Amino acid sequence: RVKAIGRLAATMIGIVCCGAAVVLSLLWQWLDRQLYLLFIIIILQGAGGAALQIGITTSVGIMFMGNNEAAFANYKMWQSVGSAVTFIYSTFLCMYIKLYIMLTVIVVGTVCVLVLEVIYKRQKTR
Q1: Belongs to which family (predicted)?
Q2: How far apart (Å, rounded) are the C-alpha atoms in residues 114 and 22?
């Protein structure tokens, strides 16, 4: 429940899980490609994706209270653009490059989430 832990905490849990999955994927080759590690990567990615979905959806719903339809449409549009771009470059890049791109997006997204949270808190106190 987001009420119990907060939307920023839910988002951060998702970011940490997804980041850990990407880092573990990068290290998998040097860890003798153990099968159990593959299952850990899958669990981390699934848990992280679920937590991110909850945290981001809650944030969009709260921050754009008066304009929910446009906010969620914009959110889903950019989510689809990201999927399309990933699909387009997926055949041209090797797995490690794609993992580094994913890690970069996670870091940039984390910074953006933190900046957005600071801006929202400042506007809320006014």
Answers
A1: Belongs to the unc-93 family.
A2: 21
The residue extents of the domains of the chain are: 2-125
Distance, CA of 115 to CA of 118 (rounded, Å): 5
What is the tens place of the pLDDT at every residue in 41-54? 999 999 999 999 99
Structure tokens belonging to residue 95: 């797995």
Name residue, tokens 């994927």: 25
Rounded to whole angstroms, the Cα distance separating 38 from 63 reads: 37
> Which two tokens mark 82?
């990201």
Q: Which residue has the tokens 């996670």?
A: 106
* Average pLDDT of the chain, as a whole number: 92
- Structure token digits, residue 91: 């055949």
If DSSP codes are grouped into helix, strand and coil, which group holds residue 6? coil
* Three-class SS state of 31: helix
Locus of tokens 């994913």: 102
Q: Which residue has the tokens 């907060």?
A: 6
33: left (phi over 0), alpha (psi -120 to 50) or beta: left
Q: Please check whether residue 5 is in contact with residue 32, taking contact to mean a CB–CB distance below 8 angstroms.
A: no
Q: What is the pLDDT of residues 113-122, one digit of tens each?
A: 999 999 999 9
